[in-house]
Design goal:
Two copies of one chain form a homodimer. Chain A is 50% helix and 17% strand. Chain A is α/β, with parallel strands linked by helices and 534 residues long. The first copy, chain A, folds into three domains: 163 residues, 3-Layer(aba) Sandwich (Rossmann fold), CATH 3.40.50.300; 173 residues, Rossmann fold, CATH 3.40.50; 125 residues, Dehydroquinate synthase-like - alpha domain (Dehydroquinate synthase-like, alpha domain). Chain A is elongated. The two termini of chain A are 47 Å apart. At the A-B interface, α10, α11, β12 and β13 of A face α10, α11, β12 and β13 of B.
Amino acid sequence: MVIMRNVVLIGFMGTGKTEAGRLLARRLGWSFIDTDALIEAREGRTIAEIFRDCGEPYFRDVEARATAEAARAGRAVIATGGGAVLREENRARLRASGWIVSLVAEPEVLLARVGAGVERPLLAGEPEANLRRLLSEREPLYRDADLVLDVSRRGVEDVVNRVVEFLAGYEEASVPVRLGSRSYAFHVGDGNLALLGWHLRGIGAGRGVALLTHPRLRTMMGNALAANLREWGFDPAVVTVPAGERSKGLRTASRVYDALVAHRCDRGAALVCLGGGVIGDLGGFVAATYMRGIALVHAPTTLLAQVDSSIGGKTAVNHPRAKNLIGAFYQPRLVAADIAALRSLPAREVRSGLAEIIKAAVIADADLFQYLEQHLDRILALEREILVEAIRRAAAIKAQVVEEDEFESHRRQVLNYGHTIGHAIEVATGYGRYAHGEAIAIGMHLEAVLAARMGLIGDAVVARQEALLARAGLPTRPEGVASRAVMEAMALDKKAREGRIRFALPLRLGEVAIRDDVPPPLVQEVLAGSPESH
Amino acid sequence: MVIMRNVVLIGFMGTGKTEAGRLLARRLGWSFIDTDALIEAREGRTIAEIFRDCGEPYFRDVEARATAEAARAGRAVIATGGGAVLREENRARLRASGWIVSLVAEPEVLLARVGAGVERPLLAGEPEANLRRLLSEREPLYRDADLVLDVSRRGVEDVVNRVVEFLAGYEEASVPVRLGSRSYAFHVGDGNLALLGWHLRGIGAGRGVALLTHPRLRTMMGNALAANLREWGFDPAVVTVPAGERSKGLRTASRVYDALVAHRCDRGAALVCLGGGVIGDLGGFVAATYMRGIALVHAPTTLLAQVDSSIGGKTAVNHPRAKNLIGAFYQPRLVAADIAALRSLPAREVRSGLAEIIKAAVIADADLFQYLEQHLDRILALEREILVEAIRRAAAIKAQVVEEDEFESHRRQVLNYGHTIGHAIEVATGYGRYAHGEAIAIGMHLEAVLAARMGLIGDAVVARQEALLARAGLPTRPEGVASRAVMEAMALDKKAREGRIRFALPLRLGEVAIRDDVPPPLVQEVLAGSPESH
């Protein structure tokens, strides 16, 4: 499951639902709703007074309304009254609203906690006997939960940790990136940045955290995330750099170092990159080189960064004469991709990211290609489950290729499908005309045509890929780009070795091969587009 | 053996001694001496004319004088006449001068090569019969060599490679640094930079090479080394940065990137760092980050860099607020330490390097400590074999510690013996008063005193170390340095964790332990020096 659902705490009086719920909500950055408090506020009197004045049936009606109201909230931790689970109507609403977490405890513990029971009308008279009776009546209802936690010998901190662990397990789809001592996990979910503090604890990050982002993202998400991390015991500093490629240079890197020094970040510190490719590349480079390497965490906010650049450890800044010239291979310790961040992106940027998902499918996973053909419209609509699944599968492909060739010796070149021509088009158009994914889409189409001309694939594959790219709203042909300029850019590319241009060319859907024997006249011809209608 | 001796080529006429010798000399950057050419120049006529006019006995006398003259040269490849080995006097001189490399070939090959023998008086008349007779007479003499190479089916390039391989095996002492796929070799010798091109070929470096050095070193060694590398088929660019710590910053790194771009260095390029710690740290950082990492080669020219900083992969530049703040762990592909470079160093700098050798002995090798006690004066006199052996053993210790803990998690901290106090003294004195090794020597003495006060070692160990440091001309007490300033610097050091100062303290000669439980008042007392005369 991938939808970030509410957390509903059920359990007998005295199990600490309110205290645990309050802390959990703070940790997640969610709102906290206590249905008893809601009832008291609505009614203007205490629960005990309602019981005394109007009796239990009246209270249960009021409680049902409060429960319904609470269940409608989003991003909320809901603590219910001990008897809220008695009505099937309430149970159904709560179950639809979120994960049911039941706190249970031994009767002796509860008795000690509820004490004299002044405010507990149901226990009045013979507290122990009443409590035991109620407990045994309700036990099946308290057992009917997604997670049952015995709090008899468990502190509130421990309860919260267990709930978050549960959420991380069920609310995120994860992909392991297996690189020996440099292994890490890629998580994707909807709203799962709420779990980042938990994950940071998991990797043993120290208190000092720097959150690198852009000013706009800081307002949208960064400040909230920082507040959230503070609740987890971290000491985050938010560092912003202007959006755009110009921030990807040594000068900006130097300013980020300054900020880390000013924040007294030591070797145990973590740098969280909240943003797209520029933030990830820049922050990755800084993390790789600050004190010879601190923990790097990617929280990619663009689809392109989520499925591609956040995995694999390529970090870099630009040199005035060449993009990504200064950098390092440096793996993150953790990647947390939250699709909630995609909802504020322009549609064009989402489509651009889709190009890399389609690329992943073509190079390594024919099933994914089919999945994309089936579900493209729902992905474009950012439908949670479908989108998370597509991202997870694309990330798994990237992870696998990186695992086979961490330092880009050979195998990793398959990821360059569409990029030999695509990157050259970006260079030839000065990076201004096409978004990266658009250029890659054109590159994929032309390289597929090239493969067909060389007899590697049939025209049907070319057509199928072209149709999917077109449905994704991606271009497949360079408009008014001089093919000579593209040829020149390819020859100068750092992927070229001793003047030979390398291509990753499809052999069928799901498989590509590296070739450096493509005749330049053929490339020229395909670029010029003349006999495409052969 | 560690002395870079000449190479003497012996062999029959037609074995290609002149051609091979000439190429070998170019590759090594040595002079080439052809004794036959020397004779002709001295006599003002050809060998054939001398034979004709004065007979063989006269020629042999002239040849003996020319051989004696050639044998006196240094850094020379000497090609001898085919009959030079006939006289014992010549053989003894040549053997004393260098390695005897004998080129042999099958008679048929030689006959084909010497052709009609117009210029070969000894073959006149019946060339084949004469040749076979001479060969069989001289065979034992040609076999009496350090290296015998059959050139019957071997081109000159191959001959030269075999000779250089032989030299690398016998003229350098080597230490392997075993780090899996990041393993490399440390070589130390006298004049062995002549072999650098050979080693670069060995690691598969591409044509593009950048030689990073200081202007003074460029004149002294860099230009010659570049010319040498050119002979090996490389395309070296010499890049200079001003000497001194101020070059160790992002600004200078940026200028080095520019130079690499201007020289069109690609991913296959190598960066050779010819210099001391600043060049190694700066160049190491640039190599680690240019195109996400190119081959790094250290050619350390100070004793400190040879025994310490060139091994282990720590690279860094300074941040205005902290030294070495920006850096990476990035292992070199090769280290070539040439003690010839040390001969132009001020004595103080050599003594400073000695501090790290003594440190290595104290932390891990009691035998080396004894070796230093025995041979210190000869090391200070830069006596080749002794010095090379001391460097090799110190390098082996550094290599072993690095192998156990590449990324400085724990074990590597033993290398910080003397550095906790030593580094703090450098900080407290603004890096101006003491050379690094001097500060470390003081640190070693005071930390040994600390260990003695804690009952870890006896006073005899302290005294032995102090005596050796003193003989090396190193200070052991901070003169007029406020102990409070040193205490403060220690607390701020990046090696301190959560306010606790870490020390590597000796348990005996050859073993240290990491301790973070040293009582600060004790440190204060030792620094103040009061009860040192206990």
